[in-house]
Amino acid sequence: MPGIERYVQDCTYNPAVGSHYPETHNYIREDNTSGISILQRKPLQLAQSETSMPTISGKRIRQGRINKDLTIVEVAAQIGISPTALSYIEGNKNTASLPTLRKLSDILGLPISYLGCFEDLPERTLGELIRKARIYQGMQINETASLFCVDTKTITNWENDRRKPMNKKMNQIKQFIIILQTN
């Protein structure tokens, strides 16, 4: 064979077929002696470095799904979204909502904080700690407000450091943010 060209896809252009492909397959073009090019589509084998710890949310979700031997269709059906939506999340074209991350966490057996890449969120102020703890637990603002028996505006004010929680709420907040010390 005169030459084998390998197109490892990272959403790159594949001149052999004239379009873009997501990073799910290798495309190998083999030129034979008769001058005919044959394009073969083969599943992408993950490199060792990709299996360590991806730093992009979609890649972490995809890796977790692959590790559980689940298809996009199976996972999408279990969490109640379309396979296309899950594919967009895995390809980092869309971001998963907290309720979706919560469902993915249950199915894949991975923490929400890992799937969402939330470990790098700031922790400099009490408000940032509250926000990070809320997100680590996959809670929306209204759920957190119900937990603390306050309105959503109060949670938003706390998270943006516009207001400080009253002393009677501080013990409850300390228990709430303890999740950050365990992860």
From TrEMBL:
UniProt xrefs under SMART domains: HTH_XRE
Family matches, as PROSITE patterns: HTH_CROC1
Protein origin, superkingdom: Bacteria
HTH cro/C1-type domain segment(s): 61-115, 130-165
InterPro entries named in the record: Cro/C1-type_HTH, Lambda_DNA-bd_dom_sf, TransReg_Diox_bact_type
Keyword flag NADP: no
GO cellular component, one term: cytosol
Name the record gives this protein: Helix-turn-helix domain-containing protein
Organism: Paenibacillus monticola
Organism lineage: Bacteria, Bacillati, Bacillota, Bacilli, Bacillales
